[in-house]
Amino acid sequence: LKKEANKRIKYIFFDLDDVLYDTTLQYYNARLNAIRAMIEAGLPVDLETGYRILINVIDEQGEYSSQHFDKMLEKLGLAYNSRIVAAGVVAYHDTKLAFLKPYPETISTLLRLRDKGYFLGVLSWGKTIKQWEKLIRLGIQHLFHKVIMFEEIGYEKPVPEAFKVSLKNLKILPSEALYVADQPNPDILNANRAGLITVRIRRGKYRTEEPDSDEMVPRYEISKLSELDEVLNKILKAKKQ
Ligand SMILES: [Mg+2]
């Protein structure tokens, strides 16, 4: 019993998008600036219309298509115009890079948790190479003891096994691990099912989304990463009682 009482969280895993940096803001601004540049290059629509059409195209073609701006022209009934498309591409990439910055408290929180002796990891869905690119550009890749992209280990679709297998390979018990993520589904749902202690961060485009079922309810909720210390203290106190 005493041993159980002394057991504490040793491992903290993070989701990436809208958790370690403001992905929502990054994409919003990149898209908006792309439309602005396309208008400047001759696209005959207003900003609002352009933005709306771009979002439609992304919904239809998927996030990873490279044809978004070409398709926009098509949707507007306009002839292909390489100057307009290139203007959009340049503004999009420049803005994306400019906003690929950690939240103000990301690095200090990670360093503090490392100093306290926690093992830090990333567990993320999404395209492996894209997620790695983000970590490297954010300049935080060295702060983690382990980075696992689920896609790379064979899980393209979110399932609890992705968590279970990742932790098992690291010889980590789910009950000793926190998972910090933004979405009730699939993040919190699958981590809960795998037995991790879940922490939802209310940030980004899913911040107002409410859980559809009990399994999507996180154990703890925070609004920024620096509140993790408080969560860890709470867990420690609860275990001591
Ligand atoms: Mg997420």
Task: Describe the protein's architecture and organization.
The protein has 241 residues and is α/β, with parallel strands linked by helices. It is built from ten helices and six strands; from the N terminus they run H-E-H-H-H-H-H-E-H-E-H-E-H-E-E-H. The protein has helices at residues 2-6, 23-40, 47-61, 68-75, 82-98, 106-115, 128-138, 160-169, 184-194, 228-240, and strands at residues 11-14, 119-124, 146-149, 177-181, 197-201, 220-222. Strands 3-2-1-4-5-6 form a six-stranded parallel sheet, sandwiched between helices. The chain is elongated. The termini are close together. Mean pLDDT is 95; it is low at 1-6. The structure holds magnesium ion. The site of magnesium ion has 6 residues, from loops. Residues 15, 17, 181-183, 187 line the site of magnesium ion (MG).
What key phrases describe this protein's structure?
241 residues; alpha/beta; 6-stranded parallel β-sheet; 10 helices; 6 strands; 49% helix; elongated; disordered N terminus; binds magnesium ion
Quick structural gist:
By secondary structure, the protein is of the alpha/beta class. The protein has helices spanning 2-6, 23-40, 47-61, 68-75, 82-98, 106-115, 128-138, 160-169, 184-194, 228-240, and strands at residues 11-14, 119-124, 146-149, 177-181, 197-201, 220-222.
